[in-house]
Design goal:
- This protein is of the alpha+beta class and about 140 residues long.
- It has a single domain (about 10-80, about 85-130), classed as Alpha-Beta Plaits.
- The protein has 5 helices and 4 strands, in the order αβαββαααβ.
- The protein has helices spanning about 10-15, 50-65, 100-110, 110-115, 115-120, and strands at about 25-30, 70-75, 90-95, 125-130.
- A 4-stranded antiparallel β-sheet has the order 2-3-1-4.
- Helix 2 runs antiparallel to helix 5 (about 115-120).
- The radius of gyration is 15 Å and the shape is globular.
């Protein structure tokens, strides 16, 4: 079963798990569609999933800046050394947010909502995992 967008209950859980001023790093695992699947009402030109995600990424950088978040690392996923046989990812992305609330503010912002259709059209599957440093 593919997972593209977060549920309300998962977003609520995220905010409860982190202190108000605690930074959060989001691990993004991305699998692109061969061809982006835009809705008719999106009025977007046809493209590959990677191209649709590039459209999203270009616009999302401004949204990240608005909440003082930043990409930490972006790379190509290659060999799934330990994973189920049918689990492959195309790209991995780490994004640092100043807080879980900053992430929630970004994804609920109308300007972000106006661009997220590129991400939805681009992805066949994804994972978004909130992380914090391990306390020793």
């Amino acid at each position: 079963m593919s997972s593209i967008n977060p549920s309300r209950s998962r977003l609520e859980s995220l905010v409860k798990q982190f202190a108000p001023d605690e930074p959060v790093v989001m691990l993004n695992l991305l699998r692109f569609r061969e061809d982006a699947e835009y809705a008719d009402e999106d009025n977007e030109s046809p493209c590959s999933g990677r191209e649709a995600y590039a459209r999203y990424s270009k616009l999302a950088l401004n949204q990240l800046a608005k909440v003082e978040a930043r990409p930490e690392w972006v790379g190509e996923a290659t060999v799934p050394v330990i994973a189920p046989d049918d689990e492959d990812w195309d790209e991995v992305l780490l994004v640092r947010y100043p807080s879980a609330q900053a992430f929630l503010s970004m994804v609920s912002d109308p300007e972000y909502q106006a661009i997220v259709h590129h991400r939805t059209a681009a992805l066949a599957d994804s994972r978004l995992i909130a992380m914090r440093p391990k306390k020793t």
